[in-house]
Amino acid sequence: MGRAKEGLDRFLKKNQQDLIECPYQPGHLRISKSACSKRYRLSRKENSTPFGKSDLFYFSFRRGLAVCRTCPIGKKLAVA
Fold this sequence. Notes:
- The protein is mainly alpha-helical.
- It is about 55% helix and about 10% strand.
- The protein has a two-stranded antiparallel sheet with strand order 1-2.
- α2 crosses α4.
- The radius of gyration is 15 Å and the shape is globular.
- The N and C termini lie far apart (about 40 Å).
């Protein structure tokens, strides 16, 4: 467990400038700027595949992106 924490600390120190704290996700999620812009763009795409009760994973996935749809941070990063 100690090695994993050391690796995480090293990663965070090295990539600190590329991470942002998302105010719209629960738990003070730290996410990369690249991942944020990808989530924004994906949330803005029209849902071409209908989902039903049998596709609970897809429903959960799209529901998680719902907060990204109107995010001003994601919009700014997607344009940049």
